[in-house]
Amino acid sequence: MKIAVCVKQVPDSWAEKKMVNGLLDREGVDAVLNDLDEYAVEEALRIVEAHGEGHTVTVISMGPERTSEAVRKALSMGADDAIVITDAGLVGADALMTSKVLASVISSGGFDVVLCGTESTDARMSVVPAMLSQRLGWAQLTFAGSVVVDPAASEVTITRVTEDGVDTMKAKFPVVISVIEKINEPRYPSFKGIMAAKKKTMDIRSLATAGVTSESAWSTVTDSSLRPARSAGVKVIDEGKGGEALVSYLAEKKLI
Fold this sequence. Notes:
Belongs to the ETF beta-subunit/FixA family. GO terms for molecular function: electron transfer activity. Keywords: Electron transport, Transport. 28% of the residues lie in helices and 27% in strands. It contains 7 helices and 14 strands. The protein has helices spanning 35-51, 67-77, 95-107, 128-136, 191-197, 207-210, 242-252; strands at residues 2-7, 9-11, 19-20, 23-24, 31-33, 56-62, 81-85, 113-117, 139-144, 146-150, 155-162, 165-172, 175-179, 202-205. The protein has a 7-stranded parallel sheet with strand order 9-13-8-1-6-7-14, with helices on both faces. A 3-stranded antiparallel sheet has the order 10-11-12, with no helix packed on it. A two-stranded antiparallel sheet has the order 2-5. Helix 2 links the parallel strand 6 (56-62) and strand 7. Helix 3 (95-107) crosses helix 4. The longest helix is centred in the first third of the chain and has 17 residues, at 35-51. It is globular and about 75 Å long. The termini are far apart.
């Protein structure tokens, strides 16, 4: 069984973010492995550990050259190898282009299962897993709260919480799965894992070697502005009519 985990390098959640010429400034802030992707890496490792030798985990990512720094963390957690697609033609790529590139690499890799986090913390779109499923023509099991894989039957079973309760869903290989942050607790890379990661294979590919042609993004940011500073609040002094003042304020804000 071959498992692929799609990950992304994103600006640190605590960093002050800004747009430059319609693009998120990624060079001026610290970059990290997307927090929500760590759960997908951890789940892939647990699946492999549960079924013994002969199963592998490959991390796949698309982004600028420094993306390899985030991918290295996934390798230090225990993934076997990695594929990184980086190319000047990918600057400004949207979710459609990202899914196209990732799907091309996945389709030629002979993978049985693809795991993803629910979304990236820089865009918060939560659409790439579904787009991958559509492009690959594979089944999709999204927002999984638990994952059970049966390699012998080439089948995956997940549970997911919905408005009506907990659903159980099944699909045959090949399948795309996205997992929620409550599915597990990602492990911290050990010193041994960090040292071992330096020797693991990281296949750096351009668009040409990935078998994808560059194209303009379908969506672009044409304008952006900084979030306004928080204004001072309204202080209501209760001198017998505090309730009326509060109601008037809420009505003015159309909250009641």
